[in-house]
């Protein structure tokens, strides 16, 4: 059997292997999403038939409450992303270059939220940082009586999303740092490079790909979040997740809820494209 025939057969086997999950994604994800998007653009006419209309999008982008909610969602997403990297990068650096039981304990604590359901995290944070919670009681014991709870403020969802996103962020950053060889670090130290110089000139360029993946995946997860903004955040303005949920279930306006979902999908698509381009570019860089 020739190599070409073997390669062709392996190719068909590969396509058959992914056919079921790809079909499931097309049927249960892309098809309903396409119907929802088309439903926001094509509306029935009074005399019968259908007409193309952008009225629901015009309403969204001229409604101050909708724009305020979109701005709050972008603010929460960007602030959470910055804080996630700022919190997890030092932990990842410590775990990469430090061995011992303390590093193992820190790793276990940082990955612990991965095994806790989101609703449990919400209730735990409410009991801890909410009014008359444990944190306020502890601060009162040491004489601090001016504690202002972040619960039901814009910082409530930020704290919850940081807690929820820590494991994924940490795992990706550690994976990126593991590609940095000890020899390159030692060589830089031998020529007199300090820690800041090593971080800027050697470590940061090597983990740029990981930082991009962390940013894209967390952007997708944070922007469409509904549970934590609903449990920990304010109701006015609110993030797009609870806004869509309330518009659909309480206001009973499926057209406007679909419009909000479509706008959310288009914004998240930018992060998705960045992620896919990063993944597609990585093998080419590795082959160089």
Structural description of this entry:
The chain has 13 helices and two strands, in the order H-E-E-H-H-H-H-H-H-H-H-H-H-H-H. The protein is mostly helical. Strands 1-2 form a two-stranded antiparallel ribbon. The two termini are 33 Å apart.
Quick overview of this protein structure:
The protein is mostly helical and 288 residues long. It has helices at 3-41, 55-62, 64-97, 101-111, 118-129, 134-141, 155-177, 182-190, 195-206, 208-223, 227-232, 240-249, 254-287; strands at 42-44, 50-52. A hairpin with a 5-residue loop joins strand 1 (42-44) and strand 2 (50-52).
Architecture blueprint of SSEs:
Blueprint: H1 3-41, E1 42-44, E2 50-52, H2 55-62, H3 64-97, H4 101-111, H5 118-129, H6 134-141, H7 155-177, H8 182-190, H9 195-206, H10 208-223, H11 227-232, H12 240-249, H13 254-287
Antiparallel strand pairs: 1-2
Range of helix content: over 70%
Strand order of the largest sheet: 1-2
SSE topology string: HEEHHHHHHHHHHHH
How much of the sequence lies in strands comes to: under 5%
Q: Largest sheet, if any?
A: 2 strands, antiparallel
Count every beta strand, where a strand is a DSSP E run of 2 or more residues.
2
List keywords for this structure.
288 residues, mainly alpha, flat
């Amino acid at each position: 059997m020739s190599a070409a025939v073997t390669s062709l057969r392996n190719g068909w086997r590969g396509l058959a292997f992914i056919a079921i999950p790809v079909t499931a994604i097309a049927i249960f994800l892309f098809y309903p999403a396409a119907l929802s998007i088309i439903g926001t653009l094509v509306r029935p006419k009074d005399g019968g038939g259908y007409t193309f209309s952008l009225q629901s999008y015009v309403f969204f982008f001229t409604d101050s409450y909708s724009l305020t909610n979109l701005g709050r969602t972008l603010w929460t997403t960007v602030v959470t992303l910055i804080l996630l990297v700022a919190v997890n990068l030092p932990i990842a650096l410590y775990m990469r270059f430090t061995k011992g039981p303390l590093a193992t304990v820190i790793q276990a604590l940082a990955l612990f939220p991965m095994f806790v359901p989101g609703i449990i995290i919400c209730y735990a944070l409410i009991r801890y940082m909410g009014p008359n919670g444990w944190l306020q009681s502890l601060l009162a014991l040491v004489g601090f009586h001016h504690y202002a709870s972040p619960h039901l403020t814009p910082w409530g969802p930020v704290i919850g999303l940081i807690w929820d996103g820590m494991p994924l962020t940490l795992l990706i950053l550690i994976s990126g740092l593991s590609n940095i060889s000890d020899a390159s670090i030692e060589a830089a130290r031998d020529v007199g490079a300090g820690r800041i110089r090593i971080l800027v000139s050697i470590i940061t360029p090597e983990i740029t790909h990981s930082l991009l993946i962390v940013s894209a995946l967390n952007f997708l997860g944070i922007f469409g979040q509904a549970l934590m903004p609903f449990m920990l955040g304010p109701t006015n303005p609110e993030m797009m997740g609870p806004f869509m949920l309330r518009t659909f279930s309480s206001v009973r306006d499926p057209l406007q809820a679909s419009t909000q979902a479509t706008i959310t999908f288009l914004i998240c698509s930018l992060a998705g494209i960045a992620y896919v381009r990063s993944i597609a570019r990585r093998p080419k860089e590795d082959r160089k």
